[in-house]
Amino acid sequence: MAKVNYGQSGYVGCKMSERAQKAYDNGERPMSKWGKWDILSELEYDLDDDTIARLSKYSAQSIKKVCLEWTSWHHTGSYANETDFYQVIDGRDADLDQMFMDLDAEEKNLKEERKQKKEEKKKVDMSEIKCLFEYGEWSTYNSRYYLNKYKRYGIQKGNWIYFIERSCLKKKMLSGKYVTILQTFDRAPKGKAEKFNEIKRQMKPAKKK
Question: Of 63, 67, 68, nearest to 86 (Cα)?
């Protein structure tokens, strides 16, 4: 889709079609423009205070999915994207028992999704990746500062890279300054297996006596 020009026919400025503007005027919005309290404020006209208080305990994601209904789509943005618009359900016709059942189901799904993402993140954090990396350290000579860069083979685990320096296990934070992974390996490069084996050996926690 070509970029919308300012003042183009059928458009308000260059960010929204005239029909999209009318939808806004009628109380419709894209999903991303609806907030939890915007929705509850609309429902306050149709539902009693106890029901609103009960609804307020649910997450914004669940409220959006259950208490909004699709109405139309319109062109928005400088590239005339097709955007879905939604409005708040009519609380007077709502089956409240079903609505709260749907909200409970959404909350359960969100909880399971968060748990799954947490487990996936934990797996990534615990995985070990062989790599060649570079790090920099400042030194002084004749009152001048120099950034010395070193290349080492190491094992990335989470946000740390472990490596051997003078027979001792060292580590650098991956997100730290002057630390860059240059290459990763599925298998140790030829002649480097012993380096990685030594790193893994020293990474293992000492056995308690």
Answer: 68
Number of Cβ atoms within 10 Å of the Cβ of 164: 17
Give, as one character, the DSSP assignment of residue 5: P
SS (H, E, C) 35-98: CHHHHHHHHCCCCCHHHHHHHCCCCHHHHHHHHEEEEEEEEECCCCEEEEEEEECCHHHCCHHH
pTM: 0.58
What is each CA distance from 208 to 186, 202, 205, in whole angstroms?
32, 15, 9
- Residue labelled with tokens 């893994």: 200
N-term to C-term CA, the chain? 69
Q: In what order do the strands lie in the sheet with 128-141?
A: 168-173, 160-165, 144-157, 128-141, 179-185
pLDDT digits (tens, 9 = 90+) for 22-47: 999 999 999 999 999 999 999 999 99
pLDDT given at position 123: 74
